[in-house]
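I trust your eye. Have a critical look at both lines of this record:
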Amino acid sequence: MISPLFVRNNSSILRNSIALPYTSDSYIVKGMINSKISRKCNLTYEVSYTYSKNKMESNREYFSSKRLYESVKITYSFIKSLQMNYRLDHYMNELSPKNYKNFFFSDVSVSYLPGNRWELSCGVKNLFDERNYSYFLESELSTFYRSYKIRPRNILASATYRF
């Protein structure tokens, strides 16, 4: 599945009480592949790529940036009642031409179903123990800072009984 999208925004930004008109264009392509690699293994790959271009009407030059998000999910069934799930996410932001910030986030879990009603599971969230993701973009139009605090690595074990 592939989904293209185009978004145009005509607006103005105030600088020293003067309205400066500008145009912002975003080209977005999203895709997803879901595949059964073998009888025991499923793979899902998702991707989203965004190219943004901002141009002030008073200036011929423009500021552009690129963003990429990728996610790989693997589910592997060792036996019918034992399953492992792994997920890897990749975020990439262009900070300036040919200067990129990359971030990887990963989780893993194992589930065991000893009967029809019980489920025992154990998982590790944030395998790489990332604590913060931030980036800074600066152009003629604006300055943009984004920062995300991330929950530290943790281990979760659970036992579930279904009635």
The chain has no helices and ten strands.
